[in-house]
Amino acid sequence: MFKGRPPEPRLNLAQVLNERKQRFEGSEKVVLADLLEFIKVHDPDVILFPYADTWVPIIVKKARRYGLEPTISRSGFFKSMSSKSYWSYGKVNHKDGAMIPEGRVLIDTAKSFVYTEGGLKGVLMASRLSGLSPNLTSSLSPLARSSPLTKSMRH
User: Fold this and answer.
1) What is the reported pTM?
2) For the segment 103-114, what is each residue's pLDDT rounded down to a tens digit?
3) What's the CA dihedral at 7, 109, 39, 43 to 10 degrees?
4) CATH superfamily, with its number, for domain 13-112
């Protein structure tokens, strides 16, 4: 049994799919530096990242601890979405918090309902129809009664 907080995961391997698969291995600092440099050099507008809502806060915290620039955000700043629980279809669901980078679209491909159902095209279409950013659109469930995505689509 844990007393207090569980240990933070170590980042000693990262894999990126661009035109080809690329692996970054080594110490945590080396992997973070290589990954963040890759993002800086390639400067993608969209990052598709499984479990981003879980990993991005860890990556940003560790990058700052090592004195590295968290290039997941073009400006280095993030907007935070807090975690919340909500009622949908007769059961309580939980949505983890998220860090939304400025200047890029970051989609948690493992947890985004909109992405799972419609892919990137679905996220962009829902964003256009709702007037919300693709980051917010991919993070919200259109089925939750209190979702801004649902409210904006009613009008």
Assistant:
1) 0.79
2) 999 999 999 999
3) -150
4) Ribonuclease H-like superfamily/Ribonuclease H (3.30.420.10)
